[in-house]
Design brief:
By secondary structure, the protein is mainly α. It contains eleven helices and two strands; from the N terminus they run E-H-H-E-H-H-H-H-H-H-H-H-H. The chain has a two-stranded antiparallel ribbon.
């Protein structure tokens, strides 16, 4: 759930201790600016149980860190994150913003406190560092998806530039508590925006929305809301159905249709080579898996994906 914080109301009172002496106009202006700033974060029930104050690396990243193990922000540099580290980083980024909001609530225009401003800025600076780590770890995903939509009219550099903005929005709006991989979420968002940009409506079709779920608005504001909902939620239905397949069937469908983040579609021969089985066996397992997915789709009253 995205917590959008409205700007704070200016305080009409202040304690005698903090109002003694002249007020620095620059400090007062900084307080006013921060009181009018919206701090958005993805809330989580766990956050409210963490006491206000300094946040240790253990609180941010969990007890898995040892004395010699660096925080996850230093574990990667442009490489795809492991699922556990990905969740850890999204949790940490949003926890820092949550704590920054707590500090923001203490600000008072008539009693400006430089210490509160420095703490608020420090928390948001740490959150931005984690956000940048998440973005760097997924940049090659933007390039991979953009390659499939590049044309003479819409060049790869142009699509990548636009895709980087979509990636930034996705990082800010991803709900880590839902249990889905960010790469899957971001891939559908990128495909939607690229398809809309280059005029490929067929790439906007897919599974129907899952009842009761709310779309996360990361697509362009000009997009058709109904199509946007279907596109951004279809991966959730797909992941749930893929979980019903056995390991080999899931691996084959994932590789054949390029469902793994950053990977292109593979031929029967390529999948056969990677899995150490013959091409005909891959085809048989693929057909069996597709039939299972179709049965699941019908049972859940979902649209069968056209590509499958």
């Amino acid at each position: 759930m995205i917590a959008t914080i409205t700007p704070l109301k200016r305080s009409k009172s202040a304690s005698a201790a903090t109002t003694a002496g002249p007020i620095d106009p620059a400090l007062r202006e900084a307080v006013r600016r921060w009181m009018e700033t919206e701090i958005q974060f993805i809330d989580h029930p766990e956050f409210a149980r963490i006491k206000p104050g300094e946040i240790s690396d253990e609180q941010l990243f969990g007890t898995r860190l040892s004395a010699t193990e660096p925080p996850p922000t230093q574990l990667v540099d442009g490489e795809l994150l492991r699922p556990a580290d990905e969740t850890m980083l999204f949790r940490a980024m949003n926890l820092l913003k949550f704590q920054a909001r707590r500090v923001q609530q203490k600000l008072a225009l008539n009693a400006p406190d430089r210490g509160l401003i420095e703490r608020l800025e420090g928390l948001l600076h740490r959150a931005a560092e984690i956000r940048n780590t998440l973005i760097r770890a997924n940049v090659r995903l933007v390039v991979s998806v953009a390659k499939k939509f590049a044309t003479s009219r819409y060049t790869l550099p142009e699509l990548v530039s636009d895709g980087n903005l979509t990636l930034f929005r996705a990082v800010e709006k991803f709900d880590f508590g839902r249990g889905f991989r960010f790469s899957t979420y971001a891939t559908w968002a990128l495909r939607y925006n690229f398809a809309r940009a280059v005029g490929k409506p067929r790439d906007l079709t897919g599974f129907a929305p899952v009842e009761g779920e709310t779309p996360l608005d990361i697509a362009d504001h000009r997009a058709d809301p109904a199509v946007n909902r279907a596109q951004l939620l279809q991966h959730r239905a797909l992941e749930r159905m893929l979980d019903k397949l056995d390991d080999r069937e899931r691996a084959i469908i994932t590789r054949r249709y390029g469902l793994e983040a950053g990977e292109d579609e593979q031929s029967l021969q390529e999948v056969a080579h990677e899995m150490g089985i013959c091409k005909e066996r891959v085809r048989q397992l693929q057909m069996r898996a597709l039939e299972k997915l179709r049965v699941l789709a019908r049972r859940r009253h979902l649209e069968e994906p056209a590509r499958l």
